[in-house]
Write a structure and sequence with these properties.
CATH topology: Porin
Strand content: over 45%
Structural class: mainly beta
Shape: elongated
CATH class: Mainly Beta
Radius of gyration: 17 Å
Helix content: under 10%
Number of helices: 1
Length: 203
């Protein structure tokens, strides 16, 4: 059961909304070329997934993570790659046997922040209104707003790498995850295979 919490989303809505407005391009902005060979812009990504904190307080392994999204083909200086939605973990269990889940219940936006031509790897920033990790006992819930990620052309692999985790406050005023330090980084280990195989380059 997911714990009942009070989470301030107003500021998140404002900040994410602001990202929807494209900034004027400068001479230094790269031209991003994105090719989606599919008949639509739709993509799916799936693969094994785990999340851990440095102190081992959070140590969860999922059989897989499945996400859907949209990455349209284009060539422009806009750094917005596309969106992801409907993300959920399957058979996620921590080291004590407790069941967990990782979800992006609302849309997330992917932004390209760097490109390594030698590896075909694009650095990503994933901004979400509310990404959640929580256990079935209702004793811990974590919130993620901005996640670091990457996409590699060879193997069409999407990775969610890390994110600071917020600890919400329950309606009774207590912590939604006692023992976890608010703002600590969660590291994700995953290789999510993207279908169809999108290609990203920058020039």
């Amino acid at each position: 059961m997911r714990p009942s919490v009070t989470v301030a989303v107003t500021s998140a809505l404002a900040s994410v909304g602001a990202l929807a407005f494209a900034c004027p391009a400068s001479a230094a902005d790269p031209v991003w070329t994105v090719v989606n060979p599919g008949t639509t812009s739709d993509i799916t990504a799936t693969g094994p997934f785990s999340m851990r904190s440095a102190d081992g307080f959070i140590d969860v392994t999922c059989q897989s993570l499945i996400t859907q999204g949209s990455i349209p083909s284009r060539s422009s200086t806009s750094a917005q790659l596309g969106s992801i939605f409907g993300t959920g973990g399957i058979n996620c269990i921590d080291t004590t046997g407790q069941k967990w889940n990782f979800r992006i219940p609302d849309s997330g936006w992917m932004y390209m922040s760097g490109y390594d031509a030698s590896t075909g790897r694009t650095s990503l920033r994933i901004s979400t209104l509310l990404s959640l990790a929580y256990n079935s006992a209702g004793s811990c819930m974590l919130v993620f707003r901005t996640l670091a990620g990457s996409y590699t052309n060879d193997g069409s692999t999407l990775k969610i790498l890390s994110s600071p985790a917020e600890v919400p406050t329950k309606e009774d005023g207590t912590s939604a995850c006692p023992g976890f330090t608010d703002g600590s980084t969660i590291t994700f280990t995953d290789d999510l295979k993207v279908t169809p195989a999108v290609t990203i380059t920058a020039s």
